Structures are given as C-alpha cells and as structure tokens.
Amino acid sequence: MDSPFKYPVAKIREKREGFMRNITSEELFPGDILIQTRKNCTSAANIPPAAFHSMLWCCLGHTDSRPVIHSVLPSENFQYNGVLQQNASSYIKKHPCYIIRCNDSELADYAKNYAKIWAISTDGSIEEYLLQKDRIKRKKEIRNSMDDPDTPLLTPFGISSIEKRSLDKEKNIWGTSAILKSYQAYIRGESKISLSENIGVYCIQFILCCYQAAAIKKSISNGSMKLPIELQIRAMHDKRFSSKNLALTTEVLKYSNEISQEIPISLQHYAKRCYLEDVLKILLSEDLFSLVGRLN
Question: The organism sits in which domain of life (predicted)?
Fold first, then answer.
C-alpha cells in the first residue's frame, strides 16, 4: 500500500547512518507511535535497544490540547498509574523521541479510537474518575497497593505483567493465547470497557492491543473477516470476556486462523508477554510501519 502521507518517510532498510529527519508535532498523524530513547539515535537500527517508553499520538498535528495517550507510572507530576491522555509536551522533551508511522491510515485511525476509549484524560474526566472512591479502593485492594499514594486508573499500569514476562512459560509467541488476547481487546474496545481493569497494561502492550483490535475492526468492517455475528454478541454480553469463560473461549478459538490471517505480521506479538525492543525491531523492518524521524 502506498503511504497516504505527503512527506517522506524512511524505512530501516533505506536509512543511511548519521541522518535523522527532524519533524514537529504539527506534522504528526493520529496513530503515530512515539518512542522515547535513552540516547540520540542516528539510524533506525539504533532505536530498539535504546528505547524505554512508547506512546500514541491521537490527533492531526496539535489539534487536541491533550494529544498523547500512554500507560504511565506515577511521577513527580502525576500521582496516577495507567492509561492516561495528556499534553505531555514537557515529558516528551526530556528524552529523544522518534516517530513510527503506520502506513495504513484507516488502521491507524481505528487504533487511535480504541486508545481514546481506554484512556482517562487530564481534562475534566480525571476529576470525575477520582470521585469513584469505592471503585478505586477495590482496585487498589486487588492490586495489593493500599499503601501506595498513587491512584490506579480505569486501565492501570501493568507492573505485574512486566514482572511475569521473564517467568511465564508463554513467551512472546503468536499462538492461541495471543490471538485470544487480540480478540479480547477488540471486544472490550467495542464494549467501551477497560482494556484490563485489574492487572493493567504496560506501554507497548497497550499500543499493540490498540493496533491488534484495530486490525480486527477493519477486517470485520470491510468484510474480509467473516466471524459469526452471534459470537461477537455473546462475547460482548460477557462482562469481561475473560479466558475463564471456557465455553466462549473455545468458540472464539475455532476461528483463530481467520483472526490471525487478518492481523499483519508486524503486529503478531503476544501483547501480554512482549518486550519493547523486540516489537520495535519488527515494526521497523516491515512495510506496514515507517520511521518518520525525530520529534523536535
């Protein structure tokens, strides 16, 4: 697919050493992935090992006063953990930041839409959320964080998922667990409920869930994926559509091949068990995504 965007992008195969195009936030598109690194990178190949955080841009240029959505840990500025939509301009400027763009603008737009569904914004909605004290208390109890001063958001930061990655036998393998997780993200997005209310998600897990759900949404919308409508209705009626619902899970996995075929190779990661560096290596080597440059 030809890029729908009007200014040049650079693929990892084409990037010459020592050059990195500088861009401004006015040149960003919905669904752009922002990658923060610990040092300046002179080529796309340098970015994955230096990366430590990923974010999603949610508007055209700077048309939204809160254009960044990401899963955050508490900081000196925010006493929250989880998926947050915010301005983040000062935060971004603290470290080098590189832009990876999906060359399928429809897919990127769907990903942006899911990100906004799962985020709490720093506009009035965060104050409204903080009034739900009983809900927040229950969430802190589940997360064993009653003594922590920070507040878990609608979708909290998945610190336990990070801790389990190296211990879990299910590594970042694109198999039935990963496919089920991608369909689960799609159902939760369509149901407009938290992506992971109790366990939470970390930064690249969140972005992968947005794009995997977007790929399923696009395929169902254009008719290339033909799943029974009653299956989607049953999944949406399940309060959380969790893997503990064995009957529903078994039914969904009957269509695992159909789901897998519609999710691009560059997005075929087990979101729950992936590492930022590994995901970026794939994104920067496949045609679906392109490195745009460094954000000024």
Answer: Bacteria
